[in-house]
Amino acid sequence: MTAPTFTPGPWRRVGHRTIAAGTGLDAVTVCEVFSGGVGLDQADANEALIEAAPELHSAAAEVFAWIDCGFLTVGVLADDSPARVAACGRAIDALAAALLKSSKGGS
Q1: Is residue 2 situated within a structural domain?
Q2: Is residue 24 a part of any domain in this protein?
Q3: Is residue 75 part of a domain?
Q4: By three-state DSSP, how is residue 30 classified?
Q5: pLDDT of amino acid 30
Q6: What pLDDT score does 20 carry?
Q7: Which residues contact 48 (CB under 8 A, 6 or more apart)?
Q8: Fewest beta carbons less than 10 Å away: which of 6, 27, 55, 107?
Q9: Distances (CA, A) of 105 to 4, 17, 18, 100, 102
Q10: In the chain, what's the furthest Cα-to-Cα distance?
Q11: What confidence score (pLDDT) does residue 12 get?
């Protein structure tokens, strides 16, 4: 995995639907969340998810690294069931794809 190039966390809510990183003169606005069309509850949930993004990325990268180095294995999680092995493989692939997407900054 390549190192992420997004603004380092932690990110926090600093105003009406504004997410920022850093403090004082080093503060930078990461994004603003708008509620138009989705409603206040969904906008609040989007804001919470965005605020947690750096921690979610870090946790996902750590789990992926443990899997990738063989410390956590599909076999242990999936037993002998081919369906479970396949499901774990899909989950690992999805995790790898999400991490790659977040490090590239695009889709």
Answers
A1: no
A2: yes
A3: yes
A4: strand
A5: 95
A6: 95
A7: none
A8: 107
A9: 9, 22, 20, 9, 5
A10: 56
A11: 93
Residues spanned by the domain of 43: 11-104
Residue with tokens 């906008």, as numbered in its chain: 43
pLDDT for the residue 21:
95
> What is the total count of domains within the chain?
1
DSSP E strand boundaries for 1-107: 11-15, 18-21, 28-32
Query: Can you tell me whether residue 74 is helix, strand or coil?
Result: helix
Tokens of 16: 């009406």
Reply yes or no on whether the pLDDT at 4 is more than 80: no
Whether residue 3 lies inside any domain: the answer is: no
Please give the single-letter amino acid code of residue 63.
V
- The dihedrals phi and psi of 29, each to the nearest 5 degrees, come to -75, 125
pLDDT confidence band for 66 (50 / 70 / 90): confident
Strands of the 28-32 sheet, one edge to the other: 11-15, 18-21, 28-32
H-type alpha helices, the chain? 40-68, 74-78, 82-104
Q: What is the pLDDT of residue 35?
A: 86
